[in-house]
Design a protein that fits this description.
By secondary structure, the protein is mainly alpha-helical. Helices cover 44% and strands 0% of the residues. It has one domain.
Length: 108
């Protein structure tokens, strides 16, 4: 399949967004501000973006390990993901999933 320059830039932008979000977790993890184990998907951003680019808006995807990237690639809100990792009620799973983000956005 051939992608347009606009699509390729969009894929790269999503991958960069995932990487920057995940890198923002490193210091809070090291300083123990985030207390639960967080398995980052650093280096696997293209997998999440590639999979989610093939999905329709109404499709669901479930992840069980290193799935922050999938959540963001599917269109999840970064603010809600960060709140979830910090176990806050404003998180995408109301702070109950912690690092194991289980809610999947429907918009792409």
């Amino acid at each position: 399949m051939t992608y347009s320059k606009e699509q390729l830039v969009g894929f790269y932008t999503k991958m960069l967004r995932i990487r920057l979000c995940e890198e923002s977790f490193v210091e809070p993890i090291l300083s123990k501000e985030i207390r639960c184990p967080v398995h980052l998907c650093t280096g696997q951003e293209a997998v999440a973006v590639g999979i989610c680019s093939a999905l329709e808006n109404d499709d669901y995807i479930f992840g069980n390990h290193r799935s922050h990237g999938h959540y963001l690639a599917k269109g999840g809100r970064m603010r809600e993901l960060v709140a979830e990792v910090f176990c806050r009620e404003t998180g995408c799973s109301r702070g109950r999933g912690g690092r194991c983000t289980s809610s999947t956005p429907r918009s792409g």
